## 1
Amino acid sequence: YLYDFTEEASKESPDLEVASGLIQLAVAESKKAVETGPNIVAAQEISAIIYREIQEVADGATDWARSSFEKALALEPNNPEILTELGKLKLKAENKEGALVMFERALLVKPDYMEAALILASFDGEVGNIESAIQRLKTALATNIIPDERIKGHFQLGVLYYNNQSYEEAEAQFMAALRILPTHSNSLYSLGLVYQKWGKLEDALRLFERVLELNPGNKDVMEKIKSLK
């Protein structure tokens, strides 16, 4: 029901009555699951996910999501996904300190949990603690084997290196992401920026043109190509 709601809501002209009905069905079924198995982690977690996904359209859903995640965490205290989800809800409530505690706990129990590592690296970067941000991502990448997560980790690590003017290290990270997914537009574009810094304008132009092929009509990329030509 949640999947169907998401599909309906993403339409150009969604049927609000249908969408509302699907939300009600999703919530009703998740409640049945929790009532049937209150000590089953998956039931509490799915209930929390449903509430999380409907936060913007249902009053009180954020509090219900937090409550369900907290119940799930009580049943499984070392689940990094639940810890991270609670951290994100605390951020939404502007409780940054509490959120950071959740993210740190997630990495304590699973050092290669990429989502928590990315969030904490972002916070480190915001306060200028680049070395800490870099180390977080390097630690996560050391043992994480999930391709999508490795792409995100390599790319963000590359951005940190690039912003720190460590262009060779940045190139290596963008290349690592592209070895996993050769069409990763952000890595292609960022690698182009590295080559532009080095004066390798033909290589940079080739990469920007590839990004434009993947993202037709992107004005920023078109301007970048025009300036190089």
## 2
Amino acid sequence: PAELIRIPFRRWKIVLATATLLTLAVVGYLQLVAPTYTATAVVVVRPVVTEPFTFPTGTADRSVNMTAENSVAQSNGVITEVARATNRTPRRVRDSLVVEVPVGGQVLRINYTGTTPREAVVGANTAAETYLDVRQASHENQRTVALKSYDSIIATTTDQRVALEKTLPAGGGTNVSRPAATLDRIRVLNDQLSNLADQRARIVSVDLSPGTVASPATFPVPSSHDGAITYLLAAALSGVLLGAILAFLRELSDRRIRSVEQAAEVTGLPLLGTVRRRK
């Protein structure tokens, strides 16, 4: 244990030089490398449900595939819109945009790193809002396709009912003979039209709200140089540790005899006396 303290103190120049070099390297980094700013916007993803105020059951459509939503948040549409808002290339935006998905929640943390605080805030908020717009547009397109399909089926069923009604004898009253099979068929078509109308109404009533920006990016924005003092302290301590290691390595490579014990160990002869040099 005494050697662990004695050797670094004896070779203090190596320790001091190493700590100084590492500290100067960090100072050079802080001076030469421009700081970057990272802004974060938090988006709460909302599932699309037919009855949002009902208690969810095991089969309710209340879950969201967050892996897919992560891909949507980094899609080309979002990248292009952020590039337009920040005046950056899409490649630069793709490198600066990071989307995090916390485990167990339907939340997206959208991080954007820019060269200025304004660029970081604009990039993060634009990415969050564009993601919600893209998601809502996708749901609206799906609903439009579904409604067109129902409208087509309803129109076809209505035409069938009208054609059957034309085959019935004109006039009313109890004396008019009406084919029972035709009436049953018309009744079935009416039931189908009623069910189709109910299903279409449920699709129309679906709330397509994709979610909300729960926490938009705001000023002030954290900078990569905010922890400059911490970096300098870490560099100094690391330099001391590395310098101590270099001091031990230098000690191991130094073959000079510095003590009586080392002389006796090297020569294998007993010590008879000591002659000290006058200073």
## 3
Amino acid sequence: MYKRQLLHTWTLSVEEQFYVAFPLLLLGVSKLKRRVLTPVLVAVLVVSFVSAVYLTESNPILSFYATHTRAWELMAGALVAIHQQKLVGWIGVLAGWIGGRRSLELLGLLGLTSILACVFAFSAVTATPSYSTTIPVVGTLLIILLGTRETVVGRLLSTGPMVSIGKLSYSLYIFHQPVNSYLYYTSFGERYADTWQLTVVSILVTVALSLFSYRFIERP
């Protein structure tokens, strides 16, 4: 029971390892020439992705939770952060060749659609991390690059409700798994297991705790 309640915190450990290792990597690369930074990050991305595909076939549990099989996702974000302006420029030129502004809109919508499709299409049998994981990763990168107020997706994500959800996202993530576990193991969960009633109660309790956490813990 208790393992299930805190199972989701493995992602935080992977992030913390990234926050420690990545600056050290940048520091080491800075001793060399700056132009080698991108090749180094690309090399880490490729090695990590190949490891993820290979290990997911031989040891899927280790591959799912390990850091070296998830590093490529973080490297993808790092590369976009470093080369964001250049990438946006390239996408703009490409869109101009294809269909102008409409192409930019379609690429932004493609990014959002990719993420939503994974929410509904991925299941417990989906190989992760592997080739399938590139779909939400690329979708996220497209939104980062094209999610400005100049695009439909950007304006959608900038609306009040979406911004509010974004502010609560960390707390929502932290609380959702413990709430689900506790409710599942109570008499309420025994009676309404795998029903919409349990889902609704879980969402309401999670949101309430997240609002409290954001107001009295995160903001201070």
## 4
Amino acid sequence: TPSLGQALDNTNFTWNSNGTAKWFGQYDTFFFDGDAAQSGKISNNQWTSLYTTMMGPGTLKFYWKVSSEYNKDYLSFYVDDTSNPVDRISGVADWQQVSFYLLSGIHSCSLVYQKDASNYGGSDTAWVDKIEFITEFFLS
């Protein structure tokens, strides 16, 4: 089984997971290079989070995919522990790349797969792959 860093194609950051079940590296579903991270198996009213910290400014890019109950169970991206996600997806969504600009400073970044109180849809899981962070350097 690949480590989270290997599965995300980025070992420059320390990747952590918490919640009801932890994210893990796997080889079955991926966008790039034969592996990706997958959300842990959760039930209704549960969540699982994959997170790290990054030093901006820079651009964060990654691929994500979800198979969930549409408009009920979400894979969401958060910056700096806010209660509102920067972006989120639900339903049966194939791999898509997203990009976010992070301002100067240290930022906590987390991907959270969360289920609502009832029902199931799709495979009830989420995947993330090929995380890139392009730091901006300023010349004086």
